[in-house]
Fold this protein.
Amino acid sequence: MSLSTPTTMLPAEEARGRRHFGQFSLRRRVLFSQLPLTISTILVVVAVLVFDPSVAVESPYLAIGFGGVMVLTLLAGTVPWQRLPAVVYWIIPLLDFVAIAPLWTAARYVLDGMVLLTAFPVFWLAWSGLYPLLALSLGFLGTAAVSWWPYLAGTTPFSDALMESSLTRPVMVPFMMLSLGAAASILTRSMDKQRVELRASLEKSKSQNRLLQAVVDTSDVGILVVDGQGHDILMNQAQRRTHFIGLPPGRNDGAEHELLLFEADGLTPIPPDERPVTQALQGRDYRGRIIAIGTDGSQQHLSVSASPMYDDDGQFDGTVVVFQNVTDLMDAIQTRERFVAEVSHEFRTPLTSIIGYLDLAMEEDLDPTLRQFLTTSQRNAERLLGLVTSLLDSAADSSKVTVQTVDLSRLTRYSVESAEVRARHSGLTLASDLPDQLLAKADPVKMGQVVDNLLSNAIKYTPGGGSITVSLRCLPGVDEKGDWVELAVEDTGFGMTDQERAKLFTNFYRTEHVRKAAIPGTGLGLAISQSFVRAHGGEILVASEKGAGSTFTVRVPIAGPAC
Ligand code: ADP
């Protein structure tokens, strides 16, 4: 295989082809592999000329060896090796042995350790990574040939060799070089393996990176990943578009801190230390924070979530911030709320008038049948007004409560008394367990609505024969928020499943059983109650079992002495 076709190479072959100076062409790599021997040869010749110039004059071997190495160096640098099969460049290290032999013969008595010149071609062959066994054998044979050359060429009588301890040299040196070559070959192979593995894992990580980039770019959700130092690591296309919307008018580029960001109302600028990315960089973990970006017609609403990342030592290592464009949703919610508020208001005025005139008519001395008709009309008109009021409440800003010190015991007692007639008509027992007085920090109107709603539900959703218990108590607080006033409305009614319970506070939600039984209702009461209670800083909880009954518990902050 030609080394000039890297795209078709297998990883191992590629690693071998790029053994020396991997970034250079093969021709240069062959030249660079030859150069150490060339330089050493020049040094040898210079040393010989300095210490014993007669060697150069008396024997042609020094000139032959030197010339050979130089010619081989020239060939190494000029032959277009990349066009030839890879193994062909071995010709250079093999011929190096031929050039080293006369050099050694000539200079071995002047310079010690000359035979070590053979280490260069031995290493080169071993490092090439091609045909390791053949390379080792050739290195061994080349070194042996060089070591024995003076005896074979007759420049040193064989008898001398036997007499001298120098016989150890021609015998030992090839084996030493064989060991060195083997070590180099093993090292090469293990480096090859590592390089191949490294390359494979690099490829894998590159392809995973490409996959990740494609996935995040396909997403409509803006994704921003920032490292622990605040540098952007990843920003997908959706986020780039969002970033553009937030730039000050007339700007095409800008940093995150320059973006025009507002609270959900679209008007209040977000203070610098409360900006979503700033908070995410402080390691905050949050979900669904609604903000507005940009101004005027191009303003968009975003739901922002952030998740911090930690390294193995648990140190903050960056954050992932996700921006979901919720403009359409916000527009739809606003439109719906406006529509509900306007329509409810339009209904309320004529309904109040109808009920007023029905009240007046009922004061007259009426025929019993007519009174019956008017009573039914009045009940339905009131039901309709209740419905319209609920719709208005759900559209109104429920976060506005006017808190004062309220005797919740009195307020509850009043609601229980009002509900007694309805409970009796439905065949239910209504009991209450209320202290003489229990003060809470509450809005009396809103809390009255909450208690009425829970009582009305308990009556509506408990079959005849059942019972309802309303109780009120002081609940010691577990944290710095202080003590609570806890109201519980318990019934033995239909109850509900856990799945139904999870959706209970959603606008317009009604359980299947209640819908099928056509019990009147809007599915708004609990949603409104929950928003009222939350506006007090309190909470509303439900425990229920299908077929066994439910307990609704409301907690609001206490106003009187602690429990
Ligand atoms: P509405 O009573 O007008 O339907 P709510 O928001 O007050 O609306 O209640 C929502 C739904 O929760 C009801 O329709 C009913 O299915 C269920 N629910 C509420 N209170 C009870 C209760 N005490 N027992 C059983 N189900 C209840």
